[in-house]
Amino acid sequence: MATIFIFIFFFFLVPSYGFDSLDPLGNITITWDYFSDNGNSVDVRVSLNNLQLFRHVEEPGWNLGWAWKGDEVIWAMLGAEAKEQGNCTRFRGQQKPHCCQKEPVIIDLMPGTPYNMQTANCCKGGVLTSLKQDHSKGGATFQMNYIKASVSDSGGSFSMPENFTLGVPGYSCGTPFQVPPTKFTKDGHRWQQVLETWNVTCIYSQFLASPTPTCCVSLSAFYNSTIVPCPTCSCNCQGLPGATNCVECSHHMCPISIHWHVKQSYKEHWRVKITITNMNFVKNYSQWNLVAVHPNFRSVTQVFSFNFQTLSVYANFSDIGMFWGLPYYNDRLLTHGENGHVQTEVLLHKDRGEFRFNEGWSFPRKISFNGDECVMPSPDAYPTLPNTAHISTTTLPTIFLSLLLLSICSTSLE
Ligand SMILES: *[C@@H]1O[C@H](CO)[C@@H](O)[C@H](O)[C@H]1NC(C)=O
Ligand SMILES: *[C@@H]1O[C@H](CO)[C@@H](O)[C@H](O)[C@H]1NC(C)=O
Ligand SMILES: *[C@@H]1O[C@H](CO)[C@@H](O)[C@H](O)[C@H]1NC(C)=O
Ligand SMILES: *[C@@H]1O[C@H](CO)[C@@H](O)[C@H](O)[C@H]1NC(C)=O
Ligand SMILES: *[C@@H]1O[C@H](CO)[C@@H](O)[C@H](O)[C@H]1NC(C)=O
Ligand SMILES: *[C@@H]1O[C@H](CO)[C@@H](O)[C@H](O)[C@H]1NC(C)=O
Ligand SMILES: *[C@@H]1O[C@H](CO)[C@@H](O)[C@H](O)[C@H]1NC(C)=O
């Protein structure tokens, strides 16, 4: 009996403007507010806002760069700092400017920076959380005073810099475009308008971030003793140039592997166990997140040990579920040497007319970790139901041991 998998889903057919069908509009927006013009200098407030549903910016964080069109010089900055001062020798004698580079790179300050160097919403060490995980920490703001270019092309108007970069692998930023000026309030009563506001949209592409995938998926089910491993060479092949020696040497060479185990069947419900393993010896993943696509996510009854939310990316289509860790419990996925795994069990309702164990229905359609899509096994290898479909509810405690053995090989140190 041939098993037929239909992997064409609604969201694959929708044309996407970004690069990610699970968050098609996701972007990081830079907003540049000109809030006062002092003749030869200008005060600007720059904000970064992470408008992505699940992808976050983790340590070491953003490094915002741009190119001035003239010989502008940053005189002072609050809430962030330029990485390098550059050549300021033309300002002899006097107090030196903050940054004289043609292409400055701005870095965030650390939490706990002295109060007189801060602005509201600053100093998070470059980390930006996602909309779903903690929207309140998804932004960063700094202020600066800069000296206008000595030869200003258009009298009076501002000369917006260009060629913005975020300094985070995978992001590319568009051309600045003028938007209706931002309003702001200091006291909650009076609203002031800035002079001009410009936005820059930066979009993530997994291909730009990394030439190879970074995670893979393995599968198993209580009704079949076969463990379908991560596809060989999912992320790289052992011994190939570029195969990192900081990851546990496995047949898949992925820093992250995810195991989806269909664990148990009850009268009205079924249970899945999801384990995320960090194969990396040198990296902790803080604020990690996992996004999976499964039609039964519409009827999740209970999720143990993880946070869970469905993402309504396409109006009523809630097959996309996001998991992330509980603060101070498992929101950090530690290195391979330090118990590097986290796991959850999910209880789902068996919806009439839809739920089934055959045809691979109980397995995920797609999984991403920290916003990067993981390599799935080929559908024709999925564990199948025994032909005499007697479903036992025993679990297989040996599965994880054998999985471990499967994925481990001698570590090459070269
Ligand atoms: C940026 O993301 C937000 C939130 O998803 C979206 O509303 C907005 O349209 C996006 N902007 C662009 C220019 O794509
Ligand atoms: C921005 O980048 C383009 C293409 O690399 C370059 O031609 C242009 O001169 C840059 N702009 C500035 C102000 O450096
Ligand atoms: C700095 O700029 C001045 C001209 O403004 C130049 O004479 C000097 O060589 C530069 N110094 C360095 C280290 O580049
Ligand atoms: C500009 O960016 C801000 C977020 O920083 C956003 O709220 C606003 O809607 C954007 N404006 C336009 C016209 O895209
Ligand atoms: C990972 O986190 C643990 C516990 O917080 C810490 O002891 C360890 O040094 C970290 N390792 C790396 C490589 O950052
Ligand atoms: C969303 O789904 C519910 C229940 O499945 C249905 O009643 C409702 O009409 C749907 N809404 C839209 C906008 O499709
Ligand atoms: C378990 O699934 C595999 C496919 O991955 C299949 O070849 C095998 O026959 C199944 N075992 C049983 C006992 O049904």
UniProtKB/TrEMBL annotation:
One of its GO terms (biological process) is cellulose microfibril organization. GO terms for cellular component: plasma membrane; side of membrane. Residues 1-18 form the signal peptide. InterPro entries: COB_C (IPR056900), COBRA_pln (IPR006918). Residues 214-238, 245-383 form the COBRA C-terminal domain. Pfam families: COB_C, COBRA. It is found in: Cell membrane. Keywords: Glycoprotein, GPI-anchor, Lipoprotein, Membrane, Signal. It is a lipid-anchor; GPI-anchor. Belongs to the COBRA family. This is COBRA-like protein. The lineage of its organism: Eukaryota, Viridiplantae, Streptophyta, Embryophyta, Tracheophyta.
